[in-house]
Amino acid sequence: MGNKQKRKYTTLQVLSRQLRLISEQKKQYLYVVYILNMLCAGILPFIAIFIPRIVIDALTKELSQEAIIKAIVLVLSISLVLSITTTFFVNLRRAKFIELRTSEFFKINERYLSIDYAHLEDPTFRDRIETAENALSNNVEGFEGAYHNLFEILPLIFSVILYSVLIGIFQPLIFIACIIGALVSILVNRTITKYVVKRKDDIARTRRRKNYFYNTCYDFSYGKDIRLYQLQ
Fold it and tell me: What was the pLDDT predicted at 219?
């Protein structure tokens, strides 16, 4: 128990395990969904740059009205197709990620029902159970939240790469400043994440106690005989 409690996993190890679960659940098509959504959602904000460019070219190069309309319609059509595709992928992943979380929840319950009773009297073990249950309790954070966050981060990374190439070509100094700002932001967020992970056991212990007092205070079976028979 002690060695297992001290075992730690990095973010990459957790993501690697969860991505392997997609294959174990025979949902390999989600890998394709990840990649296609990264491309579609990542290119989508980049396309908005071309509309002002078309207008500027029309004013400076005196393009015909027909050419301007065709260019704008083409850009808007591509944007519409990418938006529809991205919306489809977003709705698809919500349903499929819930299935993955539910399957993992059933696995945890099976293990929980087969553990030795002595572990249930161990407060440290109960804190670990509370942490595991909280990770599988909703689709915003924890197990499923990791899938959603990766799904949303990949398009952002792809967009940043495209913008970085564009800015680096025309304004190298601005590109360097953006890189420095991004590194500082990453370091700050990493420090915050480490602190949250460090205190997760304390949070689980506090949450477990809060739930105990909440359930006890709202349990009206206490004093039932006194109320029923009007005992003094």
Answer: 65
Is the pLDDT at 3 greater than 60? The verdict is no
Amino acid at 221: S
What is the number of alpha carbons within 13 Å of residue 27 lying toward its C-beta? Answer: 18
Spell out the long-range contacts of 214-222 with Cβ–Cβ below 8 A and sequence spacing 24 or more. Answer: none
pLDDT tens readout for residues 39-97: 999 888 888 777 777 777 777 777 777 777 887 888 888 889 999 999 999 999 988 99
Nearest alpha-carbon partner for 151 in 34, 70, 55, 71 = 34
| pTM of the full structure | 0.69
CA–CA–CA angle 151, 25, 5 (5° rounding): 80
Location of structure tokens 């098509």: 29
E strands in the chain: none
* Residue 44 near residue 79, CB atoms below 8 Å: yes
Residue keyed to tokens 């949902």: 27
- The answer to whether 134 and 204 are in contact (CB under 8 A) is yes
| Pair 154, 37: CB distance under 8 Å | yes
Q: CB-based contacts of 199: which residues, under 8 Å, 6+ apart? A: none
Q: What is the SS3 assignment for 76?
A: helix
Phi, psi of 136 (to 5 degrees): -110, 10
Residue that the structure tokens 């990095």 belong to = 10
Most confident listed range (12-16, 22-26, 49-53): 22-26
